Amino acid sequence: MNIISRHKRIFIDGEAGTTGLGLRQRLAERSDMKLLAIDADKRKDPEAKRALLHEADVVILCLPDDAARATVALVDDLAGQGPRVLDASTAHRTAAGWVYGFPELDSAQPQLIADAARVANPGCYATGAIALIHPLVAAGLIAPDMPLALNAVSGYSGGGKSMIAAYESGHAPAFELYGLNFRHKHLPEITRHAGLRQTPVMIPSVGNFAQGMLVSLPLHLDALPGRPGAVALHEALQRHYAGAHYVKVMAPGLNPERLEPQALNDSNMMELFVFSPAEGREALLVARLDNLGKGASGAAVQNLDLMLGGPR
Fold first, then answer.
1. Rounded to an integer, what distance in angstroms lies between the CA atom of residue 257 and that of residue 64?
2. Which end of the chain is more exposed for a tag (fewer CB within 10 A), N or C?
3. What residues pair up with 84 in beta bridges, in sequence order?
4. Across-strand partners of 8?
């Protein structure tokens, strides 16, 4: 039974982008919501947007960072008469006064999201990285100042309009690294919300497939506090996500010999794996998710439901 109040008014600001389109598709059949839309020729008209913001219960920002900040400024101008804000951009993921929209972060996070006036939707790479690292930092199995390196690959749909156009026109390589300046935009939120004091090294990559994602964390077990085994890492993840609907820690016996990134496409699910050799002191932790699902619009719907009083 859906316990959310009927006909909540939702304005997707930036509905023409990849995340906005995904959100509209996911919400279009919802009978408990009314989707507000701005005329295409008025998307940059502050007064037209202000009128919609005054009408909306929640505005979801699917915009570049500067445009997201501009819309938040318009909400501020409404002096308490504006909507609650769910921001899918990078602009507010580490900002004061914003709740981080990863409900599985800890047991208190769903209620924090439910009560928040402003929620920052996580980044796709950050979702996988934080899902792996935060529980192990909280359990004392990874030191907050430990040097970490993340490997990650995503479908090209996460790269914006120019990358999508390049791949879909056949003018892009089969695989490429990017973010080689070591300043990927998701690193600040990974560092903050994973509980780290040292920024990880992360060089992401993109493959010639539309959507899907793998984020992996290699570890030397003897470098961890207390020199735990891989079983201890797996058990810590299992304890943290016990009862979680959208995050599943996969049993070791179910681990495949190979892992492809597209198995969870079009869902809001995320799977976590712990790989380790039978004899050895290494481990590889992997998060698999849809960069457009749990990494973007799927997570936004999950947060929206919490904000509107839906099931925890």
1. 39
2. N
3. 58
4. 33
Q: Could you report the per-residue pLDDT of 196-213, keeping only the tens digit for each?
A: 999 999 999 999 999 999
Would you state the structure tokens that stand for residue 46, as one six-digit string? 């502050």
Helix runs in 185-311, H state only: 187-194, 230-240, 298-307
The b-or-e profile of 136-170 (16+ CB within 10 A means b, else e) is bbbbebbbeebebebbbbbbbbbbeeebbeebeee
Residue of 263, 155, 157, 265 whose CA lies nearest to 209: 155
- CA proximity to 303, closest of 108, 146, 88, 107: 88
Annotated catalytic residue within 124, 215, 292, 300? 124
CA dist 143 → 86, 106, 161, 236, 268 (Å):
32, 18, 38, 14, 30
Measured CA to CA, the distance from residue 76 to residue 166 in angstroms comes to 38
Token pair for 244: 């979680």
The confidence score (pLDDT) of residue 188 equals: 97
Q: What is the pLDDT of residues 267-305, one digit of tens each?
A: 999 999 999 988 889 999 999 999 999 999 999 999 999
pTM for the model stands at: 0.94
Nearest to 98, CA basis, from 8, 189, 184, 222: 189
Cross-strand pairs, 217: 285
